[in-house]
Amino acid sequence: MFRNKYLLATLLAAAAVTAHAAETSTTFDSVSSIQHRSSTIVITGILINDTVPTTVSFPAGGGGGVDNRCDRLFGIMLTQPGVYTLTVTTDVSGGTPLPVPYFAGCWLELK
């Protein structure tokens, strides 16, 4: 009996962590500032379907140099003429006791 309860508790805990493990995207219609602060990337700009500047912090890292590759895209967006949309994604890894967010990727789209 105890074994079944332990198995059920383990399955429920795993389901709760899995439910949180969803990639989240933030899309900027324009960007006015990008900063690296310690282990955080801070982007200020106007979000899609919004009219006022918003500052959003993203956890840097994520392995594979994702934030380094995104630095190139950030540079292109800020230095080359054009109208772009910037999308930044974050995800979570299974941490103990709580999942840990990380910077998962980014992309530019020319409008």
CATH A-level architecture: Beta Barrel
The largest sheet is:
5 strands, antiparallel
Query: What is the overall number of helices?
Result: 2
Distance separating the two termini: 61 Å
Strand content: over 45%
Residue runs with pLDDT of under 50 for 5 or more positions: 1-20
Q: How do the strands of the widest beta sheet line up side by side? A: 3-2-1-4-5
Instruction: Give the total of domains.
Output: 1
Instruction: Classify the secondary structure makeup into a structural class.
Output: alpha+beta
Average pLDDT reading:
74
Secondary-structure element pattern, one letter each: HEEEHEE
What is the CA-atom radius of gyration, in angstroms? 18 Å
* Proportion of residues in helical segments: 25-40%
CATH class division: Mainly Beta
What is the 3D form?
A: globular
Briefly note the CATH topology name. Answer: OB fold (Dihydrolipoamide Acetyltransferase, E2P)
Describe this structure in words.
There is one protein chain. Helices cover 30% and strands 45% of the residues. By secondary structure, it is an alpha+beta fold. It has one domain: OB fold (Dihydrolipoamide Acetyltransferase, E2P) (Beta Barrel), CATH 2.40.50. Strands 3-2-1-4-5 form a 5-stranded antiparallel β-sheet, with helices on one face. A hairpin with a 5-residue loop joins strand 2 and strand 3 (53-59).
